[in-house]
C-alpha cells in the first residue's frame, strides 16, 4: 500500500529516444515534449560543458564557433555519446515533470530491435544516471505496434515497419514477442544525405543538412512523376567549381532518383522479413497487411511501392510520428499487462 501511494507521488514517463527527435509521454498527461535530439557542447581546456539541449541546440547546428559543437548523441537509434545522451535525457526528464515530486520517475525508454547488449545497457544506465528510479527498455517495433493498436499479445501475426531518422525496422510480432525483427541504418538522415549527394554529383553544388531535409519534405517522393519533372523547388547552395553561392531549381523526378537506393534497401528488408515468416503468421499478414509507422514512412509513395513489391495491403498508422512513444506510454500505464514486452 505504501509503495503504491509513494509511486503516485512520482510522475512516470515514457521516452522515444530517437536519432532525430525525442518524444516524452507523461503518465496521465499524454505527450508533453517533442524536441530535436541535439546537444550543444562547449569544449575548453579539455573539459566539456553542456550549453543547450533540444530545440535551442538544434538552432546552433552549423552556426557555432570552434569551441562549441552541436552534436546528436544518438547514431542509428543508439547512444554514440554517453555523456551527451545522459545530459539530454536528464534535461528532458526534468522538463517533462509537471511539478516537484517526492520520488524519481519510473521510465520506459525505446531502443532499436537491433541494439546490442552493450547499447541497451548504455541506454538504461543513461536513464538511471539521469534520475530514473527504475528504467525499462522496450523495442521500438513493439512500441510502435502497441501505439498503432495492433494485437501484439494475441496468437496472430502483426507486421510493422518503423522508419525513423536513423534506422528502419521491420518486425513480425505475435504473443507479445518478435518472431522476426531486423533493422538497417537507413532512415530520414540517409535520405537527406542521398539528396545532398545527388545534387553534389549532378549539379556540382553543395547543400547543407537543413536544405536537403527541406527538399525531402517539400517535393520528396519515391514515384517518378507522370508529367515528366513534376514539382520544382528553388534552393540555394555553394558552387563547388567557383566557391560562391548560387541558386538551383531541383525537380521532383530528381529527388525520386536520389532516393531510389535507400528506398530499395527498405523494400529488400521487407521482403526478407516475409521470406522468414512462418506460413501461419504469413497468412495473418495477408489478411491484415503491413502497418507503417515513423516519420520516414511519410515519404510520398512509399506505401504504394511496398504494396506493389509485396502484393500485400499497406496502411499508415493513424499518427505515425508518435506511435512509438504512445506505445511505450501505454506499456507504462498498463505495466502489469505489458510487463512481458519490457526489459529490465
List keywords for this structure.
344 residues; alpha+beta; Nucleotidyltransferase, domain 5; Actin, Chain A, domain 4; 3 domains; 5-stranded mixed beta sheet; 28% strand; disordered N terminus
Spans of at least 5 consecutive residues whose pLDDT stays below 50 are: 1-9
Q: What name is given to the CATH topology of the largest domain?
A: Nucleotidyltransferase, domain 5
CATH hierarchy class name of the largest domain: Alpha Beta
CATH architecture heading of the largest domain: 2-Layer Sandwich
Tell me the β content: 25-35%
Quaternary arrangement of the chains shown?
single chain
Domains (count): 3
Morphology call:
flat
In terms of structural class, how would the helical and strand content be classed?
alpha+beta
* Largest sheet descriptor: 5 strands, mixed
Question: CATH superfamily name of the largest domain?
Answer: ATPase, nucleotide binding domain
Largest sheet: spatial strand order: 3-2-1-9-10
* Arithmetic mean of pLDDT: 88
